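Lecture notes, continued. The same structure-token format from the folding unit now serves as the input rather than the output. Read the line below as a description of shape only.
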């Protein structure tokens, strides 16, 4: 499908303008037309007088890479259950690792969370990511005491049993305030909630838990096996593909895994179209990605 740049352009055009009628991606006018010379850009709008390309008004804006490489990158990302690393992408596409890393973060923009309220019943659970001593610099490891993981980051997730969809967030702590806020933001009012026996969930309405502390994992309909299965995939991606996810970008990775999980029943081409739809209207600057967090 994407052997040449012309075929890639044709696919993107068919997706953007399925009826064949061009519209401006910047102002929405139907007075857009193709520029014969293709310069300075392939299309121009008669109404807003601006030139544009297929990348305009998407997270791909200002990228100098050909569309066929973007199509390949989206394909590789969507067909890799545990994700694709920037090192692999840079070898497969013939771009630098820095470029591949930025490409993957742009693709993750397609999965940025939108308002989600599940009808339920839902399963809610937390997991801890990171903190492996082996990932720390030698100078830091020398100063660590004790054994086991350090500096873990908490991620909370909810899985809707009716739709099989997942929503995730990075949270600062496991307090009742944090857990209740997440649950109530992503379920419809009164939806049934199943959790483990963490104290932070006490007080939720229409709530039932299983007591993992005493080895109880399933009691009739009460269990969290579905969301725990999702954590398993996230951890396999962490260990086998990325090896490390920085705290700064952890939510971006987690949301990416949730987004890929939510469209896994689609055909591959439909998944790619879903990604493109999610990129429209979004913008991600490289300097924002590498900017250090405020102390």
């Amino acid at each position: 499908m994407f052997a040449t740049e012309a075929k890639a352009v044709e696919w993107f055009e068919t997706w953007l303008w399925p009826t064949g009628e061009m519209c401006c991606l910047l102002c929405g006018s139907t007075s857009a037309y193709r520029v014969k010379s293709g310069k300075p850009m392939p299309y121009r709008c008669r109404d807003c007088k601006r030139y544009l390309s297929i990348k305009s008004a998407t997270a791909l804006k200002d990228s100098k890479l050909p569309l066929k490489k973007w199509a390949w990158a989206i394909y590789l990302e969507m067909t890799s259950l545990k994700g694709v690393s920037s090192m692999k992408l840079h070898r497969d596409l013939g771009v630098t690792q820095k470029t591949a890393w930025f490409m993957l973060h742009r693709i993750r923009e397609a999965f940025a969370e939108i308002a989600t309220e599940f009808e339920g019943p839902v399963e809610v659970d937390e997991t801890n990511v990171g903190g492996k001593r082996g990932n720390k610099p030698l100078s830091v490891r020398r100063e660590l005491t004790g054994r086991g993981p350090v500096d873990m980051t908490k991620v909370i997730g909810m899985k809707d049993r009716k739709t099989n969809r997942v929503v995730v967030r990075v949270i600062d702590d496991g307090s009742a305030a944090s857990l209740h806020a997440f649950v109530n933001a992503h379920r419809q009012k009164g939806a049934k909630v199943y959790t483990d026996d963490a104290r932070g969930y006490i007080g939720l309405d229409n709530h039932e838990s299983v007591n993992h502390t005493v080895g109880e994992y399933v009691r009739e309909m009460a269990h969290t096996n579905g969301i725990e299965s999702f954590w398993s995939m996230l951890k396999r991606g962490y260990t086998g593909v990325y090896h490390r996810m920085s705290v700064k970008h952890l939510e971006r990775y987690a949301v990416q895994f949730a987004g890929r999980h939510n469209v896994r029943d689609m055909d591959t081409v439909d998944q790619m179209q879903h990604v493109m739809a999610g990129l429209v209207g979004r913008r991600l600057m490289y300097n924002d990605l590498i900017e250090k967090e405020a102390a």
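Point for the exam: Strands lie at 32-34, 43-45, 51-52, 122-129, 153-160, 166-171, 193-195, 207-209.
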